[in-house]
Amino acid sequence: MLYSCTPQTGAQSPSTRNGQRTRTDTTLLQLIEINQHLAEEADRQVAQYSEGYALNETGFWTRGLKTVDHPLQEGEQVEIHIAVYGLDSTLYELVAQTQTIGKIEHAQAVVEVLSEMEHGQHVSILAPWYVAFGGTGGHNVPPYTNVRIEIEVN
Questions:
Q1: What spatial distance separates the first Cα and last Cα of the chain, rounded to whole Å?
Q2: How far is CA 109 from the centre of its chain?
Q3: Of 113, 106, 108, which is closest to residue 152 (Cα–Cα)?
Q4: What is the per-residue pLDDT across 115-131, written as a single tens digit (0 to 9) for each?
Q5: pLDDT digit string (tens) for 15-46?
Q6: Which residues pair with 77 in a beta bridge?
Q7: Taking every pair of C-alpha atoms in the chain, what is the biggest distance, in angstroms?
Q8: Phi and psi angles of residue 14, each rounded to the nearest 5 degrees, phi first
Q9: pLDDT tens readout for residues 68-87
């Protein structure tokens, strides 16, 4: 015996109650707009410290990153040293660890820069919160914090 659904004769309405979807969409749009304003303010703050740095297309600034002959390869394990500071030079984190290149264990800016570095290189990053530790923060880094990250690969 086969059963089937009764065919729909009209357009289906969205699964909402009493305009709930409209309020949710409006709230979401407002949150997106607030985040955009926070990101724009972060960009302005970081740019104040950017003398001597080069702007990356992702939105963070680097100093000491140069084209290298033998960049680190994805899957390669290297020893890295990372220091994370606030823009006011507050030290948030010191990390010394073995890192697998291409594996996301750090802020987006760090992951991107590591793929362009070589052994023995030191790079400084100025990163707005949205490419650093985001709205949730890191181990000791508060949410929405713009940072300077010093990376050295051994």
A1: 70
A2: 6
A3: 113
A4: 899 999 999 999 999 99
A5: 555 555 567 788 899 989 998 999 999 999 99
A6: 100
A7: 77
A8: -65, 155
A9: 888 889 899 999 999 999 99
- As a whole number of angstroms, the distance between CA 132 and CA 134 comes to 6
Q: Which residues pair with 97 in a beta bridge?
A: 80
| Adjacency order of strands within the sheet including 61-63 | 54-55, 61-63, 122-127, 147-153, 77-86, 91-100
Please, are residues 89 and 124 in contact by the beta-carbon 8 Å criterion? no
C-alpha 110/C-alpha 96 separation (Å) is 14
Q: DSSP characters for 86-132?
A: ETT--EEEEEEEEEETTS--S-HHHHHHHTT--TT-EEEEEE-GGGT
State CA 134 to chain mean position distance.
Answer: 6
Element (H, E) at 134: none
How is residue 123 written in tokens? 């790079």
- Residues written for the chain: 154
- pTM listed for this prediction: 0.77
